[in-house]
Amino acid sequence: MPDLNPTQYAVPLFVVAVLAEMIWAKLRAPQAYEPKDTLVSLSFGLGSTIAGALLGGFAVAVFLKAYEYRIFDFGPEWWAVWWAWPVCFVLDDLKYYWVHRAGHRIRWMWASHVNHHSSQHYNLSTALRQTWTGPLTFGFLFAVPLVLLGFHPAMIAICGGFNLIYQFWIHTEAIKRMPAWFEAVMNTPSHHRVHHATNPRYLDTNYAGVFIVWDKMFGTFTPEVDDEKIRYGIVKQLGSFNLLWAVFHEWIGILTDVWRAPWKHKLSYLLREPGWSHDGSRETSDMIRAKWQARSGGPVAPQATSVADRNAIAGGAEAA
Amino acid sequence: MSLPPLLVQSAGSLAAILALAALARWLKLGGHPGLSDEAMLRRAAEEIVDGFEVADFSLAADRTAALVRDPEGRIMLIRLHGSRHVGRIISPLASARAHGNILEVDCREPRFGVTRLELEDAEAWAAAINAVGRGRDA
Ligand SMILES: [Zn+2]
Ligand SMILES: [Zn+2]
User: Strand, helix or coil at A5?
Assistant: First the structure.
């Protein structure tokens, strides 16, 4: 639903903020920006808007159809029901949490979301590094329950836009911590740095959009520790500033794997978590973390792993 | 005559993007101090593959790349990438050629490129890299 989006009005603000952060970087941390990386990230942002405008129509059509079957009806002046807005915003953020979590755990969706993660830098330009291929995933279906509840697709789109605008400012190393009460409830630079980190202790955690409480509720929260340098990006860094490769590399990877895999494993290369392989030749984030724990005696697996998995990991560590 | 709004917005955004990237360059942001010493290589290798231990290493003369080996004989190529570095464990697909002190390592991976290193022991590393996956280093 890209067209009904407040983000386009925020673009001048984005530009000014990136500019300000560059000046901060000049004075404090020149390596926080890399011109080639910045160019790629910002091009991702522009391309994403265009792709959304061209391909988003299908999602809009699905939503408008689903809206005909809504359970509650806010009436023809649905936009005037003031309390529906905050309720919609919170539910949309809950929806965001689950889309985002799926985006990291299902390779088909990761192929699109990896675009946001493939920079080795973490600055405001990284926030604008948005996917071009979102419409090729089924992520938009996660919003259908909200439509069926009776929230108008336009209301959901506007809430989603503000959600994305909120997430812009948290992509920075210039802010260490916000006040404790804020860190407790809201997604912050500190929490989201963890999400962009590939340090084993941080992999696949902090999926929140605006409210960090979802991660705490669903067991995927990991706080930032101060004495460990964060390494940003993806487990297997691209090593290239080629924009088109950055856009499509994981899709190409999936096609190659599905083509080569034995029939009974083909679907798994599409639907299982990134890093899964039928012959155990690669590593998933859970495997990387388990190894790290066994080696370093690190804290128990992030709550993302089930109790059963944690027991298995503990057992493995003892046997080793 | 009116242009489609998407086109106008995109043109405006593109101009802003180019301006910001040019500014980043003009401010001389980025840059890499180079792979300086063994301690740095150890940290880099450990970052690239968690738990990778460096038993043996060779740093290119210009400090833009290095080869490291762990106690099990796994070889990792590390090279600069913008103001960060990247690396790959040498797979059986990879190949290397030495001409005197110059070593060229091709990881045979799309867009990762061929890495040139000036090393004292280029020949030995080439032989080691080409032997990966042939059972000699097992
Ligand atoms: Zn993510
Ligand atoms: Zn992010």
Answer: coil
